[in-house]
Design a protein that fits this description.
The complex is a heterodimer of chains A (111) and B (116). Chain A is mainly beta. Chain A has no helices and 12 strands. In chain A, the strands form 3 sheets. In chain A, strands 2, 5, 6, 10, 11 and 12 form a 6-stranded mixed sheet that branches. Chain A has a 4-stranded antiparallel sheet with strand order 3-9-8-7, with no helix packed on it. In chain A, strands 1-4 form a two-stranded antiparallel sheet. In chain A, a hairpin with a 2-residue loop joins strand 7 and strand 8. Chain A is globular and about 40 Å long. Chain B has 116 residues and is mainly β. Chain B contains no helices and 11 strands. In chain B, strands 2, 4, 5, 6, 9, 10 and 11 form a 7-stranded mixed sheet that branches. Chain B starts with a strand and ends with a strand. Classes of the chains: A mainly beta (111), B mainly beta (116). Chains A and B meet through strand 6 and strand 11 of A and strand 4, strand 5 and strand 9 of B.
Amino acid sequence: GNSVTQMEGPVTLSEEAFLTINCTYTATGYPSLFWYVQYPGEGLQLLLKATKADDKGSNKGFEATYRKETTSFHLEKGSVQVSDSAVYFCALMNRDDKIIFGKGTRLHILP
Amino acid sequence: GAVVSQHPSRVICKSGTSVKIECRSLDFQATTMFWYRQFPKQSLMLMATSNEGSKATYEQGVEKDKFLINHASLTLSTLTVTSAHPEDSSFYICSAKGGVPNEKLFFGSGTQLSVL
């Protein structure tokens, strides 16, 4: 079946540090891949997405590349800010429009 | 941009009562809505998929008589937790698919349900 595995948190970094949150997936077919972000007290927001192999999604300085050979979609940012503190969810969606989420990774950025 | 409004954001109720959660698409017609629940430190789990005018499709292990879903119009879906018990305490979140010209998926802000 379809599943998403992402690194457990919490992840604590200093401001301006480099961020990587690992995400791997298992899926039948060719799913679309997403990163969602949940800021404190708010709902989920789509951060970025990629719909096919080798696509790179990017937004707000975050990037993730759809790697079919390693079934991965790792999230990266070169220099994090305090305002990036949130919970990040890796997710996949197949043709049935059902989204399968990872467990989420809580990120704390220290000033 | 498209917005999905979910109400209430937080509800506390006594065991045995029923709670209704509303999910509205504010400026687009939602052909499909999804309901998820999230336990602490767990992932969001899909509960059911609802299409306007038809019965909801529930995921395996989700009690349809416990979690009543009504998708009465293209802008409103409701989730009613019937005879709530403490184990139903969770974070419930809806998403709506729609928008023109390209359909997208938008999430509500979620409802934290606490059953005493």
